[in-house]
């Protein structure tokens, strides 16, 4: 069963997704094969873009230590590799699938490792930039592919996330490959590409399970584009491929006897309280994606509206489904909308390539010419009288036509620089007194953890304001730690965290030896910060170490304070 039709860019009588007979110099999918010198130029430009993407992602990569999520994923990778330092502190199975952690595990077999994990993510981030080029070339041509790769290479949103050991960077790589396979299927109507789409979507979900929402993007595209063939029989074959790949996650948990972990995590996510206001994404994501990129993408949809096709429906579906889902979902994270970055840069690149530029100069009146004398006898001998242009007439100017590529190139440069500047400022600024989860490392966290490892007895137990700092202490300090804000109610806490039923009693029994206060957790939860400091005062807390960062006026600001407590 299939639906056929035509689109504004499809010749009459031709089904969308099928292509006319290829011309000489074109491949069967209808994409022009570049001449050798053009191919060399494209390779050179793509190499330069990859180098730029690598520099902005790797610059000062070790300036800050892990944040909480990075510590958890790196700890899982270390436990999976059998690293004795982390085996008792980080269980292998927590909440998310283990594909990315398994990829990291060879680099975490012994000792403390953080830079190696981030280097792996940088490589995957640059691979995503490179993958955007063939995707853009298939959709709109090589120029769009190159410009889209450039924009993603310097986009602060993608740069920041792909400098951290998070699941979202690798997930976006697989999501981009999923989109590429789907485009190839639409263009060729070959079953292997449809199965490859299902397989890549399975790998995307196996990297981070929340990417299942992208399946909704595929469905929305097929539902909104009736002129694209919808292969029902092929879907019956593709769905088992998708299910078989993703089944690795629950099956591995079942074989390890940890099936309850996944179920408990699902229940917690369903009943979890909102962690950010409804305008969180509106306040944080547009500036990270780039206002000019968004303006170009929206503008291109308008000025190229007469050339709309299934391509725009596909990209908009890939954007709209995750944006709507995570906007309505109570739990919000800075990096959750990253899969939308790729279709956004593709739409922006398309807009810049088709940017309307006037090719005719405005009407030129007679006054710029030599004024015609009132008395014809005053005309110089041998010279024809000057004739004014008719009112309302335009004069074509060949110089204006030559300026069109230059204007469009300048627009690309302006948009790229508008991204590069904030991206460079972000990676070049190591210390700050505020922190947003998913936006980078935690200032002072690694140093505080290493201080605990070097200056406290083995077996010391640490109490922190919340579980975020507790994860960092576990990773860098190799000390068991608990978050005061972890709720005893299983419905209100991450099942991976262990609550302290009575912190006061634990201190009286000398089961807690150190307290770590940090300004980042205190800013999110003033109540638990005050409770922690009350316990510090009650049990004779003594400051033994403080981590500082420079404030706006270069004045040192304490961000982490370690107290020794005793009954």
User: DSSP strand (E) fraction?
Assistant: 5-15%
Average pLDDT level: 84
Gross morphology: globular
Uncertain regions spanning at least 5 consecutive residues: 1-15, 17-26, 363-371, 379-387
- Rg estimate, integer Å: 29 Å
Oligomer category: single chain
Distance between the termini: 75 Å
Number of strands: 7
Strands of the widest sheet, in order across it, are 4-3-5-7-6
Q: Give the proportion of residues in helices.
A: 40-55%
Largest sheet: 5 strands, mixed
Summed up, the helix count is 22
Counting helices, strands and paired strands, the structural category is alpha/beta
Order of helices and strands: HHHHHHHHHHHHHHHHEEHHEHEHEHHEE
Give your account of this protein's structure.
The chain has 567 residues and is α/β, with parallel strands linked by helices. Helices cover 54% and strands 6% of the residues. It contains 22 helices and 7 strands. The strands form 2 sheets. A 5-stranded mixed beta sheet has the order 4-3-5-7-6, sandwiched between helices. The chain has a two-stranded antiparallel ribbon with strand order 1-2. Strand 6 and strand 7 (556-564) form a beta hairpin. The longest helix has 30 residues, at 398-427. The termini are far apart. Mean pLDDT is 84; it is low at 1-15, 17-26, 363-371 and 379-387.
């Amino acid at each position: 069963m299939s639906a056929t039709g035509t689109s504004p860019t499809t010749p009459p009588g031709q089904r969308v997704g099928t292509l006319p007979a290829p011309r000489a110099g074109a491949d069967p999918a209808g994409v022009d094969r570049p001449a050798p010198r053009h191919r060399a130029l494209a390779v050179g430009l793509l190499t330069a873009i990859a180098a730029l993407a690598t520099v902005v992602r790797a610059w000062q990569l070790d300036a800050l230590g892990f944040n909480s999520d990075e510590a958890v994923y790196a700890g899982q990778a270390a436990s999976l590799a059998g690293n004795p330092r982390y085996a008792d502190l980080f269980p292998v199975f927590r909440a998310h699938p283990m594909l990315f952690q398994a990829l990291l595990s060879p680099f975490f077999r012994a000792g403390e490792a953080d830079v190696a994990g981030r280097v792996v993510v940088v490589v995957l981030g640059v691979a995503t930039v490179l993958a955007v080029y063939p995707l853009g070339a298939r959709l709109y041509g090589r120029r769009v592919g190159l410009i889209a790769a450039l924009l993603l290479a310097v986009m602060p949103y993608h740069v920041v996330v792909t400098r951290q050991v998070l699941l979202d960077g690798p997930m976006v790589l697989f999501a981009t490959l999923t989109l590429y396979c789907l485009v190839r299927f639409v263009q060729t109507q070959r079953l292997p590409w449809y199965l490859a789409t299902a397989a890549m979507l399975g790998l995307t979900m196996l990297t981070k399970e929340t990417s299942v929402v992208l399946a909704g993007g595929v469905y929305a595209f097929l539902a909104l584009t009736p002129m694209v063939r919808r292969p029902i029989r092929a879907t019956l074959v593709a769905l088992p491929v998708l299910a078989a790949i993703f089944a690795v996650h629950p099956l591995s948990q079942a074989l390890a006897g940890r099936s309850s972990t996944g179920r408990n995590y699902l229940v917690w996510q369903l009943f979890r309280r909102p962690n950010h206001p409804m305008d969180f994404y509106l306040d944080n994501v547009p500036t990270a994606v780039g206002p000019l990129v968004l303006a170009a993408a929206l503008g291109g949809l308008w000025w190229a509206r007469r050339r709309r096709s299934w391509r725009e429906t596909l990209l908009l579906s890939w954007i709209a489904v995750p944006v709507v889902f995570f906007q309505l979902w109570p739990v919000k994270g800075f990096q959750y909308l990253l899969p939308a970055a790729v279709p956004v840069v593709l739409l922006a690149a398309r807009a810049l390539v088709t940017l309307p530029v006037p090719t005719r100069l405005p009407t030129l009146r007679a006054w710029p010419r030599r004024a015609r004398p009132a008395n014809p006898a005053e005309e110089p001998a041998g010279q024809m009288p000057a004739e004014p242009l008719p009112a309302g007439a335009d004069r074509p100017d060949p110089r204006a036509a030559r300026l069109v590529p230059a204007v469009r190139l300048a627009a690309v440069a302006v948009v790229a620089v508008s991204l590069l500047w904030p991206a460079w400022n972000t990676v070049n600024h190591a210390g700050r007194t505020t922190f947003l989860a998913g936006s980078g490392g935690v200032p002072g966290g690694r140093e505080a953890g290493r201080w605990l490892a070097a200056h406290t007895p083995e077996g010391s137990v640490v109490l922190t304001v919340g579980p975020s700092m507790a994860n960092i202490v576990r990773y860098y300090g190799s000390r068991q730690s608990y978050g005061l804000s972890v709720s005893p109610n299983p419905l209100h806490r991450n099942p991976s965290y262990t609550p302290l039923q009575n912190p006061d009693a634990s201190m009286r029994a000398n089961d807690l030896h150190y307290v770590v206060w940090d300004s980042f957790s205190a800013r999110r939860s003033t109540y638990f910060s005050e409770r922690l400091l009350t316990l510090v005062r009650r049990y004779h807390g003594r400051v033994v170490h403080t981590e500082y960062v420079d404030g706006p006026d270069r004045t040192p600001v304490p961000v982490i304070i370690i107290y020794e407590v005793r009954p």
